[in-house]
Amino acid sequence: MVRRPRRRSGCDEYRAAIERLLPGLNSATLDAAVELAALPDLVRGYEDIKPANVATYRERLKEVERKLV
Asked: Greater confidence, 6 or 29?
């Protein structure tokens, strides 16, 4: 099925983002880390809705990761 690799890719992308933030996790980055951890909740929906939500997720992920640098 075509969708499963895409879903797996999203999981791997999320896992990599979490692993990148862990070394720098401290009280100053905690709020951004919590925000990043909650991002998968954005990826919901069917048909045309889900791809748009994935795009929103990726945009928000970039924004949150910039806060962590």
From this structure: 29
* Alpha-helical runs (H) found in 3-44: 3-21, 30-38
The pTM of the whole model exceeds 0.90: no
**Cα(13)–Cα(30) distance, rounded to whole angstroms?**
20
Residues 6+ apart with CB under 8 A from 39: 14, 57, 60, 61, 64
User: For residues 56 and 69, what is the distance between their CA atoms, to the nearest angstrom?
Assistant: 20
46: three-class secondary structure by DSSP = coil
**Do 49 and 64 touch, CB atoms closer than 8 A?**
no
Return the amino acid letter for 1: M
